[in-house]
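Protocol step 4 of 6: structure prediction from sequence.
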Amino acid sequence: MNKKERLYITDFIDDPAMTYPSYYLLSRSMHGNEMLRATLEAIHQIEFSFYHTPANSDDIFHLLQSGGFPIFKENYAVGYFGGRVMYLEPYGWKSMPMTKEAFEMGNWLVF
């Protein structure tokens, strides 16, 4: 069984600009993923200087396939697991609905 652990934002950010959610429930492998932590740090510090709006969806999928985490609506880390696009909520990864918003490049940030 894949045990989940809480990753508290204050464990790796001293003074987060955005405090909700205060933690994420993640698998052990995701708990230690430095790329995910960097993405969550950008979200919770509201610091996107290393990110840009993608030119097209290829930029998003390239980042997903390389194990990176694009940001959706400056709020959600997005990952690609088991052939599905998922976004991170406090209690874990959820399937991302492919609504019209998901296809608007202005809603995404990639590095």
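Step 5 (inspection) to follow. The first strand starts at residue 4 and ends at 8.
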